[in-house]
Amino acid sequence: MSEQVDARGLSCPQPVLMTMEKLKTLNQGELVVLVDTDTSRENVSRAAASLGWQVKEVQPDGDEYRITLQKG
Amino acid sequence: MSSIKEFFASRLGIISVGLFIGVFASLLQYWGNPGNMGICVACFERDIAGAVGLHRAAVVQYLRPEILGFVLGALISAYAFKEFRPRAGSAPIVRFILGMIAMIGALVFLGCPWRAVLRLAGGDGNAIFGLLGLAAGIGIGALFFKAGYNLGRNQKEYPSVGWLFPLVILGLLGLRLIYPQIPGQDKDGILFYSLKGPGAMHAALIISLGVGLAVGVVAQRSRFCTMGAFRDLYLFRQIHLLSGLIALLVAAFVTNLILNQFHPGFMGQPVAHTMELWNFMGMVVAGLAFALAGGCPGRQLFMAGEGDGDAGVFVLGMIIGAGVAHNFGLASSPKGVGPHGIAAVIICMIVLLFIGFTMRQ
Q1: How far is CA B229 from the centre of its chain?
Q2: I need a labelling partner for A31 at 20 to 30 A (CA). Which of B12, B54, B65, B204 fits?
Q3: CA distances from residue B273 to A66, B165, B279 in whole angstroms, order as listed
Q4: Distance (Å, rounded) from C-alpha B93 to C-alpha B217?
């Protein structure tokens, strides 16, 4: 079971802040981020890439997205 | 559609949007909008407040079609790209107060972040103090975010919740069409108009609305935000949004040069005063309020068009704030700060610190 950040319902910059905080503590592995706007999806993906993480998968789920980030 | 989506999310996309807004803001001045005010979200919402009689400052009454276009353009874009997300319920009263305070701060400086950049692009040196204040205010906001400041989650809502604000905007457009300005008269039906001053200076309805709609579409796509430009730099060392803002500055500057609209100096600049400290402090207040609310005044309009009811509440707060600012003598004029402008800045700052310190996890 990979670690998970639930940023649904939160607006900028909260989803990115939460994701980056988690990515820094994990250092490597896999993280699932739940968001519910396209803006958050783009911002989280961009922030993860800036820390050297890859966006492995973006799974739409109704109005929401399940973003899987991976490193190492 | 997905390649268009990717383009607008890219660095080139946000820079293109900044260039587009810069060129057309400058052109709007050429076509009739006030000096260094091709687009000013705060000034234009203040003019709308005057047009519907929420304040009676005779020189700033005009139902600015650009603002209506921003919301409706974002609405069209959100539907076209399947991004309309009706949502609301994240501390609406706080967002309303933040909107009021943002407007009061912006009117002490005489412009929102968009206009601060346009003023600089037109050669107004006083804008430097406003932009420094903006950067400082957003910097304080970034510190609050680092310390856990958070307005909480919103909720998914019925589509009609997301539609209410755009419907209000459509209603205003209806009023503007039913009651156009009668030459030489300051009122038509229920709408007030200015006979002189900035409120009397405007491009033709169809031009203002057309540019507004186009900006609404491209800004919704690209998430263009003048506050996020600084915030993301402080919090994440990201220059994505900042590159869009710089593109706006460069494009407006070059267009102003071509149109002979660049007049460098401090004295006698259009709709501006020369009190450095209060130009700075007004924008500290506005910048912090925008940061705590999660978006510059333009971005709040675009989010309201995407169905974000909380952003709509922020905009309503700004419009009511404009009424308060002019009725209570808080707004500046080219002569300097209003009679109670300094007191307003101090009180607004205290309220912002109260919000920033107490609303955290």
Answers
A1: 14
A2: B12
A3: 50, 34, 8
A4: 28
Cα dist. B290→B104, B177, B212, B242, B318 in Å?
A: 12, 32, 21, 16, 11
Beta pairing partners, A60: A65
Residues of B with CB under 8 A from a CB of A: 9, 81, 83, 85, 87, 90, 145, 150-151, 153-156, 223, 228, 231-232, 235-238, 240, 294-295, 308, 310
What is the pTM (predicted TM-score) of this model?
Answer: 0.97
ipTM, two decimals: 0.94
Quick check: bond before A15 cis, omega within 30? no
DSSP code per residue over B277-327: HHHHHHHHHHHHHHHHHTS-HHHHHHHHHTTBHHHHHHHHHHHHHHHHHHH
Beta bridge partners of residue B308, listed in sequence order: B87
pLDDT in tens, B303-322: 999 999 999 999 999 999 99
Contacts of A37 in chain B (CB under 8 A): 83, 85
Cα–Cα distance, B301 to B279 (Å, whole number): 24
With a cut of 70, say whether residue B292 has pLDDT above it. yes
> CA B354 from chain center: how many Å?
24
Residues near B40 by Cβ (< 8 Å), separated by ≥ 6? Answer: B111, B112, B114, B115, B118
User: Which residue matches tokens 């209410």?
Assistant: B164
Name which of A19, A38, A51 to mutate to probe chain B: the one with the most chain B Cβ atoms within 10 A of its Cβ: A38
Mutate to test the interface with B, among A10, A19, A39, A65 (most CBs of B within 10 A): A39
Report the C-alpha dihedral over residues A18, A22, A23, A27, rounded to 10 degrees. 160
Which has the closest alpha carbon to B312: B117, B114, B96, B131?
A: B96
